[in-house]
């Protein structure tokens, strides 16, 4: 670490040879998230033989293909479930998942919920472009109200899904959301997520100019990035406004998407607990009676 | 938990050499003996006892059990575990098997060794949850989209639930394909005596790991270690091979080649012929009174039990009847059926469905003899006389 200074050097180290160029359109946010991930990996100095990636299906889920490491490009929505088995078989692996809003919040929502609930040690990087990009711009569970999709040609009337809120409620160890327009916090969050022993969920609001931007008058990248700035608010600012702001400020803040670190806690991790169970069972040392005996009643007077 | 199979520990956990246990439990025993260290499942009758047995025994041998949120996730986790180097299995029944179809195809396409125990019940849909059937014998062969070959075994006894689960792991590891143990509610919920094989009687096959130089390694082509093997060497995740595994059509390097006709053809031909080239080697049949038979019952799984009684009844009456029992149903034992059809006048096929395996039997008898479908549905096994009456006719 430390030797790498430029994006060129970084790419040379982390990109998988032979997979270039990517399938991504001009202005797509996926490449930016990949770059942030590379910087985070570099700063952590992880041995790439011991880092494994998994993904579902979608443009965002193509990212593991471009990384010079083991990568499991699975079925639509299921990457987290695949990664659960991978982590069980080899807990020494650092497991990172790339997924999209359709992949993670739509078809894969249930796997997401249960892995977060079990607090399985993995880092889920979700790229939220408000749309099903790969299939050409159909409605996603994250599409804002009023957003235009090929399957919502008159504007979306569904309430969008906020996975950060869900992950937080389920007690995931680490939950954060950023936009791709600020590099430092995303890199820091990816690092924190990877280092966290538990389920980490990091969401990026990232542009899809082709399938979302074009139809929603945000086709040019400049406008999309500006949209993120105008429509997001730091959690801390949001909370301050809710406490001290006037009604107008509050109304405006409520319509914005919160960004920042939603949760950062230490909590028992599934496979660590499982390992304890295995050790407890080794050598037939436990029987039901012995475990009862060891628990002495302490009576407070 | 990085797992190392410990034969002594496994036997300690399994207990006595001779036991009286449930068919479902025998699948658990078979898995543990084969070296299974990961099980993911979702409760479903009549397969839940497999998950329950695994939940109880697997952590005691140092393996991992996890109850997933559904069967899609269960098979996904099993495949993930396999890439992490584990021998992994799941167990389910009809509705769950239907849910597994997409990832079943993924396992085929990515050449992932894994075992699925299907304790069959009937359908369509939820059907008769607590009763046995042979409803998925065609789904296992054709249920996922695209071109593929299935490997499927069909135990007729509790002992075979154990033995064929071990065999399933061996075949999965050898061919790098998912392998299904097609038991059913009758055998799964039957209690019988089993004899646990000693360690030296056991034949355990493990996948061939990639060991070649990393720069020279080709992940999705013929083995670079074994001569004349179409099964690639396995680059376990975490061993430094940096393999990209995808369900998309891929070239020999594992890179997506979705618009390349030649790459697709080459891939699909290799992953199917790696199995069909060995069709005769794989064939596992049991023959009873076949030598002089003029009528044959071709059977598998639970149905073989009343079928055998029916054949004995016919023999006692002096009718020249034999029985061919398929222990491995897929890949289909074409030669055995061709030969049998050229010998007998009639093949009788009792099945606990409206007629599934009767179709390939008819196809490969090639019109040389009459093929009679003897279906029974509704969750009851055939009674011997219901089969016997088709043996008396001639
Ligand atoms: C089971 C299944 N259903 C549907 C599809 C088609 N499909 C491919 S990608 C995709 C949407 C992906 O959206 P998202 O996860 O948001 O990724 P993006 O392309 O936007 O990055 C869909 C529906 C599929 N591959 N598999
Ligand atoms: S369709 Fe959208 S998400 Fe997909 S590559 Fe193009 S810009 Fe990126
Ligand atoms: Mg999307």
Characterise the protein shown here:
The complex is a heterodimer of chains A (301) and B (394). Chain A has one domain: Rossmann fold. An eight-stranded mixed sheet of chain A has the order 2-1-3-4-8-7-10-9, sandwiched between helices. Chain A has a two-stranded antiparallel ribbon with strand order 5-6. Helix content of chain A is 41%, strand content 17%. With 301 residues, chain A is α/β, with parallel strands linked by helices. The C terminus of chain A is likely disordered. Chain A is built from 13 helices and ten strands. In chain A, helix 1 crosses helix 2. Chain B has 394 residues and is an alpha/beta fold. Chain B has two domains: 195 residues, Rossmann fold (3-Layer(aba) Sandwich), CATH 3.40.50; 107 residues, Rossmann fold (3-Layer(aba) Sandwich), CATH 3.40.50.920. Chain B has 14 helices and 15 strands. In chain B, the strands form three sheets. Chain B has a seven-stranded mixed sheet with strand order 3-2-4-5-7-6-13, with helices on both faces. In chain B, strands 10-12-11-14-15 form a five-stranded mixed sheet, sandwiched between helices. In chain B, strands 1-8 form a two-stranded antiparallel sheet. In chain B, helix 2 crosses helix 3. Chain B is globular. The model of chain B has no long low-confidence stretch (mean pLDDT 97). Strand 2 of chain A pairs parallel with strand 9 of chain B. The structure holds thiamine diphosphate, iron/sulfur cluster and magnesium ion (MG).
Set out the fold topology:
The complex is a heterodimer of chains A (301) and B (394).
Chain A: H1 7-14, H2 30-44, E1 51-55, E2 70-73, H3 79-89, E3 94-100, H4 101-107, H5 109-118, E4 122-128, E5 131-132, E6 138-139, H6 163-169, E7 174-179, H7 184-195, E8 199-205, H8 209-213, H9 221-231, E9 232-234, H10 235-244, H11 247-254, E10 257-264, H12 270-281, H13 288-294
Parallel strand pairs in A: 1-2, 1-3, 3-4, 4-8, 7-8, 9-10
Antiparallel strand pairs in A: 5-6, 7-10
Chain B: H1 7-14, E1 18-22, H2 23-34, E2 36-41, H3 48-57, E3 64-67, H4 71-83, E4 87-92, H5 94-109, E5 114-120, H6 139-142, E6 151-153, H7 158-175, E7 178-184, H8 185-188, E8 191-195, E9 244-246, H9 261-276, H10 279-282, E10 285-288, E11 295-299, H11 304-316, E12 321-326, E13 328-330, H12 334-343, E14 346-351, H13 358-365, E15 370-375, H14 384-392
Parallel strand pairs in B: 2-3, 2-4, 4-5, 5-7, 6-7, 11-12, 11-14, 14-15
Antiparallel strand pairs in B: 1-8, 6-13, 10-12
Helix pairs in contact in B: 2-3, 2-7, 4-5, 11-14, 12-13
């Amino acid at each position: 670490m430390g030797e790498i200074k430029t994006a060129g050097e970084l790419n040379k180290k982390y990109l998988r040879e032979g997979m270039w160029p990517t399938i991504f359109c001009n202005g797509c946010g996926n490449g930016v998230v990949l770059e942030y991930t590379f910087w985070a990996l570099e700063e952590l100095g992880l041995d790439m033989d011991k880092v494994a990636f998994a993904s579902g299906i979608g443009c965002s889920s193509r990212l593991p293909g471009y990384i010079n490491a083991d990568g499991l490009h699975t079925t639509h929505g299921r990457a987290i479930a695949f990664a659960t088995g991978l982590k069980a078989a080899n807990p020494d692996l650092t497991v990172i998942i790339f997924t999209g809003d359709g992949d993670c919040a739509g078809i894969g929502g249930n796997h997401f919920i249960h892995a977060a609930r079990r607090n399985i040690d993995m880092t889920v990087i979700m790229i939220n472009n408000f749309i099903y990009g790969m299939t050409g711009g159909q409605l996603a569970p994250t599409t804002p109200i009023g957003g235009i999709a090929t399957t919502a040609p008159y504007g979306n009337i569904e309430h969008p899904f906020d996975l950060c809120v869900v992950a937080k409620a389920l007690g995931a160890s680490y939950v954060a959301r950023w936009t791709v327009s600020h590099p430092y916090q995303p890199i820091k969050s990816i690092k924190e997520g990877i280092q966290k022993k538990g389920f980490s969920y990091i969401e990026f609001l990232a542009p899809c100019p082709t399938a979302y931007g074009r139809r929603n008058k945000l086709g040019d990248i400049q406008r999309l990035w500006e949209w993120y700035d105008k429509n997001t608010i730091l959690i801390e600012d949001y909370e301050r406004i809710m406490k001290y702001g006037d009604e107008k400020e509050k109304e405006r803040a409520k319509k914005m998407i919160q960004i920042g670190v939603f949760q950062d806690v230490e909590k028992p991790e599934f496979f660590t607990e499982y390992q304890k169970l295995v050790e407890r069972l080794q050598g037939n040392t436990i029987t039901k009676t012995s475990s009862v005996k060891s628990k002495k009643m302490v009576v407070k007077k | 938990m990085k797992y190392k199979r410990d034969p002594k520990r496994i036997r300690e956990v399994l207990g006595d050499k001779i036991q009286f246990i449930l068919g479902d439990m025998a699948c658990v025993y078979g898995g543990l003996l084969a070296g299974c260290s990961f099980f993911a499942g979702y409760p479903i009758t009549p397969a839940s006892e497999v998950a329950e047995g695994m939940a109880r025994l697997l952590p005691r041998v140092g393996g991992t059990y996890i109850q997933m949120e559904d069967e899609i996730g269960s098979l996904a986790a099993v495949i993930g575990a396999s890439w992490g180097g584990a021998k992994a299995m799941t167990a389910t029944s009809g509705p769950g098997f239907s849910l597994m179809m997409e990832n079943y195809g993924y396992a085929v396409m990515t050449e992932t060794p894994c075992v699925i125990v299907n304790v069959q019940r009937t359908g369509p849909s939820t059907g008769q949850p607590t009763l046995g059937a042979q409803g998925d014998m065609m789904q296992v062969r054709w249920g996922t989209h695209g071109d593929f070959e299935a490997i499927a075994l069909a135990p007729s006894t509790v002992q075979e639930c154990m033995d064929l689960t071990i065999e399933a792991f061996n075949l999965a590891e050898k061919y790098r394909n998912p392998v299904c143990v097609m038991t059913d509610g009758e055998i799964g919920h039957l209690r019988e005596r089993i004899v646990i094989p000693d360690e030296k009687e056991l034949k355990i096959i493990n996948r061939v790991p990639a060991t070649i130089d990393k720069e020279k390694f080709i992940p999705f082509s013929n083995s670079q270690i074994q001569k004349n093997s179409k099964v690639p060497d396995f680059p376990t995740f975490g061993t430094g091979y940096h393999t990209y595994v995808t369900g998309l059509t891929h070239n020999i390097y594992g890179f997506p080649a979705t618009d390349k006709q030649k790459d697709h053809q080459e891939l699909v031909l290799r992953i199917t012929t790696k199995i069909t080239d060995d069709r005769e080697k794989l064939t596992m049949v049991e023959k009873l009174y076949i030598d002089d038979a003029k009528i044959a019952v071709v059977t598998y799984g639970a149905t073989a039990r009343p079928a055998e009684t029916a054949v004995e009844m016919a023999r006692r009456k002096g009718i020249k009847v034999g029985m061919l029992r398929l222990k491995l149903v897929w890949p289909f034992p074409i030669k055995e059926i061709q030969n049998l059809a050229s010998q007998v006048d009639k093949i009788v096929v009792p099945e606990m469905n409206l007629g599934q395996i009767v179709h390939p039997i008819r196809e490969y008898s090639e019109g040389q003899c009459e093929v009679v479908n003897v279906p029974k549905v509704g969750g009851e096994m055939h009674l011997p006389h219901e089969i016997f009456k088709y043996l008396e006719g001639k």
